[in-house]
Amino acid sequence: MAAGIAAVGLLSTLAACQDPTAPTTPIGSRSPDATGAPATPAPGVPTAPVPSAQPGVTAPEFATFAKWSNPATWGGKVPAAGEVVTVAAGKQILVDVDLPKLGGLVVNGDLAFADRATTLRTAYVMVHGRFWMGSEKAPLTSAIRLILDGRSSDNTMGMGANVLGSMGGRIEIHGRDSGRTWTKLSQTANAGATTLTLIDPVSWRAGDLIVVASSDLDVNHKERVTVSGVSADGRTVTIAKPLARKHASIVTTQTSGGQTRSVEERAEVGLLSHNIVITGPDDAATTKFGGHVMIMSGGVLRMSNTELDHMGQLGVLARYPIHWHWAGDQSASLVDSVSIIDSFNRMVTIHRTNNVHVTGVVADETYGAGFFLEDRVEEGNVLSNNLVMGVRQVPAGSKPLRASDQIPSEFWITDPNNILSGNSAAGGDGVGIWYDFDMNAVDAGNASDDAIHDAVDKPFGLNQNSTAHSHTIHPSDFPAEGVPGSGISVEAYNGDYAKRGTMINPNVWKNEGFGLWIDGALTTNNPTAANNSIALNCQDTAVNNGLLIGNNTANSGSETGHIQALIRFYHGQCDTNGTWLANFKQGAGADPGLAAISDIGASTWDATNRVKGLKFFGDGYRTLFASNSPYFEAAEAGHSHWFADLDGSVKGDGAPAIISNNSALLRSPTDKTIYTRVGPGYFQGADFGTWSPLNRGFMRIRLGLVEDHWTWKRADGVTAYSGTVGVVEGQRYQVTPPSGGALGSLDFDIHGTDPGFVDLVIPWSGKSAPKAGFKFWGQDVAVKMASSVAAIGQDGQYFVSGGNLYLRIQVGGTSVAFGNGGDLRSLANADQYWTIG
């Protein structure tokens, strides 16, 4: 911790912000109906290069293939309806006619389709050779329809019914190049509008079906509409019927010191139509039992500009629209510019498979997670520039494949070593992008083996330019920290802090839960957020720059209705540097505890969180600790919250300070309040934070539950109670258990992010020379008994005398460098799990 700094009075800049109705400078601006990027855009953070997919192969000359319609191709008789047809190895056949419904199709050689309108209805297609619907250099431009229509009881080579499968074969499907598959609105489209103005030019056609994403909380406010025309420059799309709802395109900016930062809230627009369609049986919409594409080891899938409609099979394991299953290295596979519409079971599943590229997909509607990395061992996969929306909870009466499917995510990522770049998670029943590294906490029993339960020390691939919006919390959501109704959640990433991962330019808005929940060995650069209940929840991590906005009324529509905080620190150390905070004034649509930095919903913090270089725009309280006396008794010490304002940017006077809540064991008589509340109110002055010089460290000690009545008495007579407390280091505390009697043994744990010590005195009825020790990161650490009470800290850490156990808890080493939040390697024994008896 830094050296002590004398207490200073609040300067005039602080006085200005004591009145929550007084404006603070600099003043920002907003564009309620933006027509593009702001005039002086924020510099942002340079994005990292994304690996390209492996190039495809050269297709054979299809004109030389034998024609399906020629009896000679089949030895004198063209296959009839109901037959299972096999294209023999070494045989090359071109489909040049509509085919009767087949009982199945096995491709051991080469099967290609002529560029003519064609329908193939078959119970299944199994590829061991090569299956060609066009090629990357010569895509098909005619209407091609593949209908996978077998019996639900079929089980083709263990791959179930209605399958287009590859067992060592190559599937190449390439439709007419549709150009850009999705973009965003450049101007707000109001209800009744018949034109959409886009940021990027498109080459869509009259008759194409497109989807316009919701721009409020409710994903159901997305709309599918039909294109009736596109302007010559490709940036204005005319639609066949007026929009039923407003779809926003808003850019909100703040400017200070010649720099401008912006938050975009723009609805996406995506293409759903392609000339090649793969679908399930005619009754699939009713039975929810469609077709599926499955690639096994040795197989390859190259698919572009193709529509997958009514695919997947509800409640059936391993039956998804696109699925790589135990396929190993899939560097040769690429899915590009595909649409997935009205699926019944996920969208894209990557299972025990590495190095797949999936890009430019537009996916709308499914049950359960959308893009799904299944077993926590899938690595090197690249998911880029995909637009996903409409992920739904499994309907009542159907069993979800995983418990987490009841908080469905557009992207469910279980191994950190993958690349996500430029994706939009545009609304659903759960969370946008969920890095679920604490899978057993949610999906107990679903992990495939004991080796995949943690992401410990795995590198974080990359997440950049991700957008997530329009997520709500549902009554049927089961408890899962940081997930329901959130935009992007990185949960329990126990990575290697020496090789911190990076999240670049995340953009989250209109999420009823958290905008960003970041937990682990990451540095998040340039986050932007607006209209989330809590913009950023962080622990064991670091955040740089960015702009977080509270209630942006420019984006009307279903508001969050319960804006609570822009930053909430949680249980582990979070360093926040250079972040701008705006629109955090209490008022309509906001929680009564709204502040720029708040502890809303958190219990005891475990660490010294740190901030530096923050800037605040507009009115409102910069800090508020809602877990103070309005909710708990004055002496209750179990909700102990504090953070270090390293440069005084929160107080506004440039003087570093510790800012804490009203927990009795954190305060001293010389502490000062930041705000003075005038008149009656739910919260009082101290609830908005007290401050003291930056000359103390802290430690979290857990002897029991927060609500347990352990009594703590400080040397100056201050008394409080709780089983879990945050305390100031360098002091002695008399601790009495809930029973009021003496202890014969003791188990407890501590967490510290500041080097220092705490002395405890506990009534003791156990051995006069008990054994003591603790575990630190799984290693046993022996603790010596001192020769006397006075010698504690010199030749040992504990001693028993006069019916008391005298104990010193020590965290050594040096403070964590700012910007390395959560990286405790410079400390000695930051986490200790004690046993004394």
Could you write a compact summary of the structure shown?
With 837 residues, the protein is mostly beta strands. It is built from three helices and 72 strands.
Number of DSSP-assigned strands: 72
Q: What value does the average pLDDT take?
A: 88
- SS field, number of helical segments: 3
State the low-pLDDT regions, or none. 1-43, 447-453, 628-632
Distance, first to last CA: 33 Å
Report the radius of gyration as a whole number of Å: 30 Å
The major pleated sheet works out as: 20 strands, mixed
What fraction, in percent, of the residue positions are helical?
Answer: under 10%
Give the strand content. 35-45%
Derived from helix and strand composition plus strand pairing, the structural class reads mainly beta
Overall form: elongated
Overview of this structure, please?
By secondary structure, the chain is mostly beta strands. Helices cover 2% and strands 39% of the residues. The chain has 3 helices and 72 strands. The two termini are 33 Å apart. The model is unreliable at 1-43, 447-453 and 628-632 (pLDDT under 50).
Features:
single chain; 837 residues; mainly beta; 20-stranded mixed sheet; 16-stranded parallel sheet; elongated; disordered N terminus
Describe the SSE topology.
Elements: H1 12-18, E1 29-31, E2 66-67, E3 84-87, E4 92-95, E5 104-107, E6 110-113, E7 118-122, E8 125-127, E9 130-133, E10 144-148, E11 163-166, E12 170-174, E13 182-184, E14 195-197, E15 209-212, E16 223-230, E17 236-239, E18 249-256, E19 259-266, E20 268-271, E21 276-279, H2 284-287, E22 292-295, E23 300-304, E24 306-309, E25 322-329, E26 334-336, E27 339-341, E28 348-354, E29 357-359, E30 362-367, E31 371-373, E32 382-384, E33 387-392, E34 409-413, E35 419-421, E36 424-425, E37 431-436, H3 439-442, E38 462-464, E39 467-471, E40 488-493, E41 501-504, E42 507-511, E43 514-520, E44 522-525, E45 528-530, E46 534-539, E47 541-544, E48 547-549, E49 563-569, E50 574-577, E51 580-582, E52 590-598, E53 609-612, E54 615-617, E55 623-624, E56 642-645, E57 657-660, E58 672-673, E59 690-693, E60 698-702, E61 711-714, E62 719-721, E63 724-728, E64 732-736, E65 746-752, E66 756-763, E67 772-776, E68 779-782, E69 798-801, E70 804-813, E71 827-828, E72 831-836
Parallel strand pairs: 2-4, 3-5, 4-6, 5-8, 6-9, 7-10, 8-11, 9-12, 10-21, 11-22, 12-23, 21-24, 22-25, 23-26, 24-27, 25-28, 26-29, 27-30, 28-31, 29-32, 30-33, 31-34, 32-35, 33-36, 34-37, 35-38, 36-39, 37-40, 38-41, 39-42, 40-43, 41-44, 42-45, 43-46, 44-47, 45-48, 46-49, 47-50, 48-51, 49-52, ...
Antiparallel strand pairs: 1-18, 13-20, 14-17, 15-16, 15-20, 16-17, 18-19, 56-57, 57-59, 58-59, 60-63, 60-65, 61-62, 61-64, 65-72, 66-70, 67-68, 67-72, 69-70, 70-71
